[in-house]
Amino acid sequence: MNPVPFVGGIGIALIALFVLLFFVIAPPAPRVAKSRRSAPGVVEVSTLTRVTAQATEVVDRVVSKQTARLFGATELEMAGVKLEPSSFLMLVISTSVTAAAVGALLGLLNGTAFLLAIVFAVLAVIGAKVVLVVRTSRRQAAFADQIDDTVQLLSGGLRAGHGLNRAVAGVAQDAESPMREELTRVVNETRLGRDLASSLAVTAGRMHSDDFDWLAQAVAINQETGGNLAEVLDQVGKTIRERNQIRRQVKSLSAEGRLSGIILVALPIGVAAFLAITQPNYFSAFFQSIIGMAALAIAGVLLIVGSIWMAFTVKVEF
Description:
It is a single chain. This protein is mainly alpha-helical. The protein has three domains: 1-26 and 46-111, no CATH class; 140-240, Receptor-associated Protein (Up-down Bundle), CATH 1.20.81; 254-318. It is 79% helix and 0% strand. Helix 3 packs across helix 5. The protein is elongated and about 75 Å long.
């Protein structure tokens, strides 16, 4: 009997279970609340939702006692993930368990079920971390691209007769994400009594943006010395536009190196995965001796070191 259809069917069932858990834990789409469509006093909660909520509360209590978190609230916020740390951790755990089950099923074909289960579970956690890092980088890049327009809108608001705080609030309402969220935070902090320049500087540090830090410094200097802030912002905006132009040129010139690095890193992983699926006996010899497992471990370490090395090589500091 060919075990491939059986293993494939179980794998599909596990993936379906993961998708179900994701839609239970993930925030629902905006819609009319069910409480407004139900009779007063009637609250219907499914069994799966109650179990998920209880599990999330347990994870939240455990995580809240830890000083160092793998997936903290700040990290999720920087990545634009609108989930509580406990909910996101539950999602990662469910993904890791599903991946471990799939790895164990695949390992039944060549006797490496336990090892593949551990590898798949660890890869699921690493994948979640990589997703957060990528989302954070993209969010910071989008924020950097919006600074030029933001400075122009602030300058226009000042010329229209608005105060600086009112101009920032107006831009926060009209801007797109992620600038909208960051400026809204600034507006809320200033309403609570925090200095505007200080709040802008903190935002620049959180988003790792030198251009936005120039805006914060311009506002701070203007608060101390006075002067026409609109003209200063125009000069800052001009400098930011020139820097963005150079940044895009550098990015286009270094695109070939980045693509080469991605291919060199993905090629051995892809070939190993292809051979593990199509020729499982090819890797079985490595797991039958300590020397073989040591060779695989050394190869993995060298691949990680080489990936980090190439990442720093093709990264252009600007």
